[in-house]
Known about the structure:
Blueprint: E1 3-8, H1 17-29, E2 34-40, E3 51-55, E4 58-63, H2 73-92, E5 98-102, H3 108-115, E6 120-123, H4 137-154, E7 159-162, H5 165-174, E8 180-182, H6 189-196, E9 206-211, H7 221-227, E10 233-238, H8 244-253, E11 259-263, H9 267-275, E12 279-283, H10 294-302, E13 306-309, H11 313-318, E14 324-327, H12 332-343, H13 351-360, H14 363-367, H15 369-379
Parallel strand pairs: 1-2, 1-5, 2-4, 5-6, 6-7, 7-8, 9-10, 9-12, 10-11, 12-13, 13-14
Antiparallel strand pairs: 3-4
Amino acid sequence: xxxxxxxxxxxxxxxxxxxxxxxxxxxxxxxxxxxxxxxxxxxxxxxxxxxxxxxxxxxxxxxxxxxxxxxxxxxxxxxxxxxxxxxxxxxxxxxxxxxxxxxxxxxxxxxxxxxxxxxxxxxxxxxxxxxxxxxxxxxxxxxxxxxxxxxxxxxxxxxxxxxxxxxxxxxxxxxxxxxxxxxxxxxxxxxxxxxxxxxxxxxxxxxxxxxxxxxxxxxxxxxxxxxxxxxxxxxxxxxxxxxxxxxxxxxxxxxxxxxxxxxxxxxxxxxxxxxxxxxxxxxxxxxxxxxxxxxxxxxxxxxxxxxxxxxxxxxxxxxxxxxxxxxxxxxxxxxxxxxxxxxxxxxxxxxxxxxxxxxxxxxxxxxxxxxxxxxxxxxxxx
Length: 382
């Protein structure tokens, strides 16, 4: 049986969109190959055992990652370089026929390109270097250098997988690599089935719910400020993150009475929030124009209306949905306007939205494409 090494910065027991994408990949790959997952642990949560047998054909090798502050760009970059280098060195010690590496830790791209062995596939889950602020001369120089470094490094890969059209266009425009395969993000079939069959409670106050990470990129304060003066609207904020405490303090300090915080909850509780919601809300600011949050596939699977603040790839998706509104990010006035528009409408749960996800964004079906990518590359050696 041929062997695939799969390098990732996110894997179990961490529960993230990145983990879910990798898990879906390796479950497909194990049907035909022996798979070694070489993964970083969560920051500050070391694994006591450096090798775990996940299944008959999947072994997981962990590289412990210490805790560091991800909000500071320069220190974050240095730590990512250090731990990514350890990840690639570990992979080089494990014989394989092919190596797959996935972002979003962007420095995995040049490090594997420089010191990795054999045939290589790159899975770009996000073009994170496009998010670097360039609001000073130094940052502009750094962003330009990193962008060129990524482009040169991508040329070293035999195949590049991307998740959306923007990533595809960026790779084609900046590199010589023409072996590019689109494998969209999506939602697991079991989650889709669960969400698409939930019954929505019609006998609730008008309720807007945000479910997800509460950090800089999401800037959930935009929702708070947009809804705070609409007295008959209830806002539920579900999740945790680096801005959770400061946002909660902001609401308390300003005596905003129609916003409730629930922190991080388990899956069963999340389903209850969907069942007791009128509108779902999400946002990513303009720095994340290339990103397509997997949360939107989950939102669309419920058939509920969505307000999305953002630009770029995610807007293209939400604009295809019924009963949903896209607005510019970080604009509380536009959030308020969108809420009032939806409050005046009568709508039913959207079958169209559910069908769009079912037909095009089931993760297992998309992930199965990686088998053909690996097979085609391995056949070129024969």
